[in-house]
Amino acid sequence: MDYNIALIKGDGIGPEIITQAVNVLEITGKKYGHKFNFKCSLLGGCAIDETGVPLPQETIDECLKSDSVLLGAVGGPKWESLPGNLRPEAGLLGLRSAMKLYANIRPAFLFEPLKAVCPLRQGIAEKGIDMIIVRELTGGIYFGKRGRRVTKNGTEAFDTEVYNETEIKRTAKIAFETAMTRRKKLVSIDKANVLESSRLWRESVHSMSLEYPEVELKDMLVDNAAMQLVRDPSQFDVVLASNIFGDILSDEAAMITGSIGMLASASLGNGKRGLYEPIHGSAPDIAGQNKSNPTAAILSAAMMLEYSFGLRRESTAIREAVNKVLRAGIRTFDIKGRDTEQIVGTVQMGELICREINGI
Ligand code: NAD
Fold first, then answer.
1. Pocket of ligand 1 contains residue 286 by CB under 6 Å
2. Potential cystine with 192: which of 10, 197, 198, 331 (Cβ 3.0-4.6 Å)?
3. Active site residues
């Protein structure tokens, strides 16, 4: 089958990691009989340089026409002094909004050969880490009413956590659906002992759970979740959280799996089309030096195959290829653990993963 992919390489290491992800997709397509058509669009700093704005209308049109979007990373020191609405990151937020994406999916997976770089005690890492965090992306305190006012006690500032049932349930649905494809365990995070918005969150998630009787649902207070993530991360399968709680917990989960150079993400909305990108930024400190780890971008492409195109076998083949390369002791510099490992650059890492896909 043919799939049209909008490709946004972006800035810094974006172009080099996306080149490797495209090579992996092409090899996978050839092996399993799919054709991936790529069309490049501008976003972020490179779009500012070429068109004056971080998100040109042609990029929005191209993404909305595509079956899915694969993105490298945007931003860098060159554009940091621009006003907020003209900065590269504004382009990314604008694209997420134009594509109506409201849920962020972040797997936190510890590849067996990388246990040595896990910062947790060996006994904890041994039990394995394999979870997916589903975070609400467009509501809550990051988008609620905020401001400052002068009171008799000086200036006062406020931010508002607001959620409605529709926002909660549509994200919960994605979390339940995800759990159905995995170990059927869902932990919903809130602070229902204190916050009214969390009590509505809990009620809405429980009402959605009636549609998924096979999924075991557990509520967990966010402070306890932060502790459990480092005490025994193996207990988690799918984790559902609001925007702010998901933001914090997903970074904690990222940290315990090693390098951010390994971590993929997806942003999803109502349809099948999604925006797939590594969780790291444009890493200007190593851009153009063949030093970046392309694995997060490659695993983002694998997520796209599974979530947007339903190609689970192909997605698994890519993940297995990554695992085999790591098992052979091959590392990029960011995931180096032992002296016996062989350090390779961006291009060689991509080539070795492609070779393994061919061999599977
Ligand atoms: P960063 O993620 O770019 O880099 C943090 C550190 O991790 C750096 O030392 C970098 O070299 C390293 N690193 C990141 N990705 C790596 C990879 N694939 N392989 C090996 N090492 C890797 O974060 P930052 O330095 O805070 O931000 C740099 C720029 O990226 C900023 O302009 C920021 O706004 C932007 N940014 C963009 C996104 C995005 O596009 N989604 C996300 C975060 C930051």
1. yes
2. 198
3. 142, 191, 223, 247, 251
